[in-house]
Amino acid sequence: MGSLRLENIRKSFGKVEVLKGIDLEVKDGEFVIFVGPSGCGKSTLLRVIAGLEDATSGNVLIDGEAVDHVPPAKRGIAMVFQSYALYPHLNVRDNMGLGLKQAGRPKAEIGERVAVASKMLGLDKYLDRRPAELSGGQRQRVAIGRAIVRSPKLFLFDEPLSNLDAALRVNTRLEIAKLHRELSATMIYVTHDQVEAMTLADRIAILNEGRIEQVGTPMELYNRPANLFVAGFIGSPKMNFIPAATLRDGGASTVGIRPEHITVDAQEGRWKGTVLHAEHLGADTILYLDTEQAGFLTVRLFGEHRFGTDDVLYATPQPERIYRFDDDGKAIA
Ligand SMILES: Nc1ncnc2c1ncn2[C@@H]1O[C@H](COP(=O)(O)OP(=O)(O)OP(=O)(O)O)[C@@H](O)[C@H]1O
């Protein structure tokens, strides 16, 4: 079991309020990701859940029990950090088993748990190596293994992939997804990378300036963003925002259209524009347009296209894919 409930969590550092009333419920076995811009309070919230930081007010409940006065080691959580935090003088086996040893578990049990976790993570061949003899990805797997052996109620991950290069990030991401399936464990994960969030999470909580803007499945956030912030945050390249007057839409203040929902044609279309820059990515082509009616627009086309800088073309939004927002930035259904 490992459910989590956050009730009106507030946290101030001096006069600065960093978390401004966070409510969230995480079900047993769920994978929830906190995502948001730098400084929005993601890590602080994770640290409050872990007990490494006291909330100024509000409650943290694990499996229905308030843990606000329970020290980190007794909360039944295991945390994986960006920096791995391995002991350099210990080999992989001892790094993974240290927490259990400190908890006074019998040697045979520690050996067994380390064997299971290291096999799961493909580390069984490296048990005698020290951290310095491992790659970055292997070190992060040891840190994850150290969490697994403790069979925690909750796994907390703080940007675990950000020290890895691009290829290794993808690999390790897949491993974390697999691990979540195999362990059916509750995982809470902080990242500023929306691809990580979209690919791993059952649900994503989008934070902004200490508040949750929206919680939902990746596709809910993509298809039905609650406001301009979420609409602009989820999706790459970013959604285009255009004054509603451009579309003669009296009921909205701003309209949004995703780059992948605009078609282009050399002869005709809704908005005439000039290509400022074209990115040919192979699978996709990204065009940056300066249009007469809608201003700057980013367009994402599937596959290869011959359009290049200074070409003049016409862009047309798919009407059923237009998002509308009111004066306060709230989505209009
Ligand atoms: N111990 C502290 N003392 C004072 N201010 C702090 C402390 N820890 C965090 N902050 C401030 O709280 C705010 C939120 O920090 P936090 O690390 O939670 O953000 P984050 O969303 O995780 O950002 P990043 O993605 O850059 O890691 C920041 O403005 C930060 O400077």
From TrEMBL:
Segments forming domain ABC transporter: 4-234
InterPro entries membership: AAA+_ATPase, ABC_transporter-like_ATP-bd, ABC_transporter-like_CS, ABC_transpr_MalK-like, ABC_transpr_MalK/UgpC-like, Mo/tungstate-bd_C_term_dom, NA-bd_OB-fold, P-loop_NTPase
Gene3D superfamilies named in the record: 2.40.50.100, Nucleic acid-binding proteins, P-loop containing nucleotide triphosphate hydrolases
Superkingdom, natural source: Bacteria
Pfam families given in the database record: ABC_tran, TOBE_2
A single GO molecular function term of this UniProt record: ATP binding
SMART domains xrefs: AAA (SM00382)
Keywords: ATP-binding, Nucleotide-binding, Transport
Family according to the record: Belongs to the ABC transporter superfamily.
Protein name from the UniProt record: ABC transporter ATP-binding protein
Species of origin: Chelativorans salis
